[in-house]
Structures are given as structure tokens and as C-alpha cells.
Amino acid sequence: MQPKILLVDDREDNLLSIETILEPGGYRFVKANSGRQALKILLNEYDFAMILMDVQMPNLNGFETASLIYERDKLKHIPIIFITANTYDEAIAFKGYQAGAVDYIYKPINPNILRAKVSVLIELYRKNRQLILQEQKLVAINRSLELEIKERKASEEKIKRLNHQLLENIASLESANKDLDRFAFMASHDLQEPLRKICVFTDRLFFKYQGLLDDDGKSNLLRIQKAAERMQSLITDILEFSKLSAEKVPFTECDLNTLLDDVMTDLAEEVREKQAQVEIESLPSLHVNPGLMKPLFQNLINNALKYSKKDTPPVVKIRAELSTDINGKNRGNLISKYCRIYVEDNGIGFDQKYAEEIFGMFKRLHRNTEFEGTGIGLALCKKIVEQHNGFISARSKNNEGATFIVSLPVERR
Q1: What is the pTM of this model?
Q2: Helix 215-246 vs helix 111-209: angle between axes, to the nearest 10 degrees?
Q3: What is the pLDDT of residues 97-113, one digit of tens each?
Q4: Cα torsion for 249, 251, 252, 254, to the nearest 10°?
Q5: Options 1.10.10, 1.10.287, 2.120.10, 3.30.565; which CATH number does 148-247 get?
Q6: Residues 288, 255: contact at Cβ < 8 Å?
Q7: Strand, coil or helix: 64
Q8: How far lies 142's CA from each of 18, 129, 135, 151, 312, in Å?
């Protein structure tokens, strides 16, 4: 912005003379031909860089006008240079300074002195404006920082509260999970005794009175026996799952080939009945819990045998490979090695959209009339793998077999 100067003189020729001298400086001029007119102008405008004012004016002289100007707080920052025809007199000079003047220009006006004095005050005005603008910026920045700090403190407090609440929820959930595991274990354990009695007495009824029963009676007894067997399997699986959640399991270096041989010995009858072919490639030794790895392999191989195609002998292939990190990528300089164990079959498979759901408790994709089971086997597998800090996933297509991938860390964490 152009610096604005207020020129006050009762003579038009003096105003024109001053404007002509200062015009090369690129200033804006507002002119008043009396003290009263100057005061009227200053009622609405107060962004002047300075005021050049004649001392000798009718009605209100320069000193009186200056005193009235400085009564307003908004105008106190405007410097005033008096223009006077009087030769230097200390009493008059004192009166001018007392009225608020910062300097004097004596008539006849020396253009160079006028330009020099105006230039000094204009430069001070510009620097003052810069300081004011800088101060305004700093105030705005300070307010922004205060608001940001306030918001950050509020966010930190909120995060602390949420963290505290989260920790409480985690503790509550852990306690609830432990209670549920204990309840499931105790309930399943207590259910076994009456269930055994149901099995024993239905067996006695069948063998003792089967000759007296018609076909409908025999069918009903067989249904009772079948339901009791399913209940027994369900309780056994729940007990296994509860034990796994409650117990701290020991780990040891274990040859997976030897462990898998034991599993295949236990499953020999099922393999023979299904006329299955199980192909096992050499597996590594890993730091695992042998007592948990056996049911893991048993469930995965049983699954492959159970969900085989009709009139097609099952083929189960088990192999392993070492990989870097779970995604096969390096994380900076930290390289996590995993052993991936693949259990592939040529069975009925499933839709890939159920690949996550099948590991849920009691989740089954087929009716009991098609395939027997409790829906706990794969949930147990997932729990076992997680106990080893590993991962389990599945790939499949309908009627194209399934592949279960167990990823276990090579080094014990």
C-alpha cells in the first residue's frame, strides 16, 4: 500500500507546493484546509503514515488541532510535523512538542529537508507496519498452536481413557474366556458319565430285546445309539479344545516324520477302508509340542479322507518347504523363516469364500446326513497352530480338492 499523508493548511497554494515537493516519493495525499476539516477526516480514516500541519490557521491552530487529534487512542500513533513561518523559538517549539509534534519544518520550505524528514518518518511507518503484521501473524500462529496443543492434550486424554478401557476390556475378556474354558471342561467332563450310561443301557436293550422288537423299534434304538455316539464325539472334541486353551504346553525339538508315522499307524484302519493313498515327502524337525501336532495331523488327514469323492479313492499328499517370512518377503534386516506344511487332497473341496469360516467353532458346510462330524476339528487345528505362533489357511474349489497350509516358525519365539 502507498503510505498516506494528511496535509493540513488553510492556504491552497501551500498544500499544492508541499504535494509537488513530495509527489516523486509515490505517496497518497489527503488534504484539509482547516483544523476542523482535518478532525472530520480523522473521524473515519486513521491509517495515515504522518500528518504535515501548518501552525497558523484560523479558528483552530495547529497546536490545538494536534491536542484534539491525540485525545483519540486510534490516532496517537500518527506522527505530526508542524510547518511554521516563525523563526526558531524555544517557547513555541516546546508548545509544539507538548501538543505532540515530532518535528518542525520552517518556511520557506527547503524541499530537500522536507523530503528527508518525511522519508525518515515514512520508513519508520513502514517498519512499524511490518512489525504489526508480523505480530499479527505471530498471534495467529500462537493461537493456532494453543488450539493444536489443546486438541492434542484432549486427544491424548481420550487415548489414555480408551487405552485404560481397552485394558479393562481385555482383562475382562481374558477372565471370561478362562471361565468359559473351565465351564466347558467341567460341563463336558460331567456329561460323560450319564452319556456312558445311555450307551450301556441302549446296548443292553438292543441285545436283550432285539428279538422282541419290530423294525421300527430296532430303528429307534439304533438312532439313540447313533445320537449317543455323536454326543460322545462332540464332548471329546470340546474337552480337547478346552484343555488346549487352559494348559501351558511344553515345546521340544521333534522330528515331524516320526510323529507323522505314529499318526498314520493310528489312522491305518480308516486309510484301508477308504482305499486311500497317502504320499508323504520328507519333513523337517521343528520346535513343537508333539502332543498337539498329532491331533493337528490327525484332523487334517481325517478331513481329507472324510470329504473324498464317491467312487474315487482319496489321494492325500503331505509336503513341506521353508520360506522367508509369512508372505515370502524380507522385513528390512529381520528375516523370519517359516516352515510351510501342505496337506493336499483330491476330494470334493469347497467354495473359496468359506476359506476363513471353516476354522470357526461348530462351522460345517455339509449336513450331518452327508458327512459325520462335530465341526470342532478345524477350529482345534487353528488353535494348535496359533499356540505355535503360526498360521493356517486353506485353498480350494468345488469338486477340485482342497489344500491346507500350516505355517510354523522355524525358530521358537
Answers
A1: 0.47
A2: 140
A3: 777 778 888 888 889 99
A4: 90
A5: 1.10.287
A6: no
A7: helix
A8: 44, 19, 10, 14, 79
